[in-house]
Design goal:
By secondary structure, the chain is an alpha/beta fold. Helix content is 28%, strand content 27%. The protein is built from nine helices and 18 strands. The protein is globular and about 65 Å long. Bound molecules: flavin-adenine dinucleotide. The site of flavin-adenine dinucleotide has 41 residues, from helix 1, strand 2, helix 2, strand 16 and helix 9.
Amino acid sequence: MADERFGTVVIGGGIVGTALAYYLAEEGEADTLLVERTQLASGSTGGSFGGVRQQFSTPLEIELSRRGLEFWKTAGRVFDSPVPFYQDGYLFLSGRPEIMTGLGEAAELQRSMGLTDVHMVDAERLPEIAPWLETRGLLGGCHTPGDGRVTPPDGVAALARAARRLGVQFREGWEAVSVERAGGGWRVGGPGVVEAERVVVCTGYWSSAFMRRFGLDLTIRPMPLYSAITEPALQGQQVPLTIDLDTGFVVEREGQSLVIGILLEENPPGYGHEQMLVEFAELARERAPMLSDVRVMRQIVANVDLGGDGHPYVGEVEPGLWMAAGFGGHGTMHGPVVARLLAGTMAGHPDPSVDLSPLNPRRSPSASGEWMVAAKKA
Ligand SMILES: Cc1cc2nc3c(=O)[nH]c(=O)nc-3n(C[C@H](O)[C@H](O)[C@H](O)COP(=O)(O)OP(=O)(O)OC[C@H]3O[C@@H](n4cnc5c(N)ncnc54)[C@H](O)[C@@H]3O)c2cc1C
């Protein structure tokens, strides 16, 4: 017997689940309960760098980014809540001709989709954008000054508050351990038992294990990303979110300090902060000498939701059972947008301008067409 009954139960309170709960309510589906095993924004969302960029290479990803930028740039005003957007810009670098060609083609595609503030930059002109860069060995990069960074839990807090105002209920410390059919709907078991007409699984990198019971063989997995916050550094200097695509070297502004790290496709065995910081110092001697001796104030590790074919799994798995997860390190920017599109689809008002069918959870795994994943290949 169920303790309670809802129209929809959303499982997982990261940026995706929280946005979905809000947008469902906005669609008039406010009879919704969101359950979260620990606290809202405690998964990948809480550890995210919060980079929001238009620089992608496929029409779908660029469209999601266009809308994602709009979401984050306007969220403070739309939700009347503190959600600062720091417009530091985004800068991809490379010393490899084939990558420069790819960046140029992607920039052209972005322009053709209306995102015209994208600039290919020769190595000699890079110091105008990031004066602290050493350009030896670089051919140049691609700069998008309108991109920036956010603190994703700000967005979760704003969305949750707005959803609550519309009648959505939230339960933290509530881990869903079972989901089974019950009559025409679903029964979700955890610290209690709730029934719903529909269930939406938004469990981030937990989703592979969670969805196995429905015959889905997903490969979303947690990949620890080791980073650090430095002492105050490069003060008074422009610091776009800068990624060297050849090495994974990344620098991002964080208040007066910086977030530093190496973006790897796969961590070598035994990898951790010690190795990352040694590698960062070596790369900094070449790429940003001012940072080769920068002091670290705090070490951070958080799990990225990697895996799959680089695209999220979004859609209906069985009648009344939906999912949205596996954003492959892009969920801060794409999560709220996909949640909004999915909510429209679930409410019977799909947005005809974006086709979500390529993200079907039961699709055959295929190589991702999106190559701009900002990580050094293993
Ligand atoms: C270090 C780092 C840097 C990143 N940088 C960027 C970036 O610059 N730009 C960008 O766009 N993205 C970035 N990402 C990726 C982005 O943060 C994720 O793609 C996004 O947060 C995924 O959101 P989510 O809601 O799907 O998952 P999560 O935030 O992981 O949320 C899933 C939630 O489900 C809950 N849950 C799991 N199982 C259950 C259960 N059985 N019952 C109840 N609750 C459950 C979890 O506790 C969790 O809170 C980064 C991630 C990391 C870790």
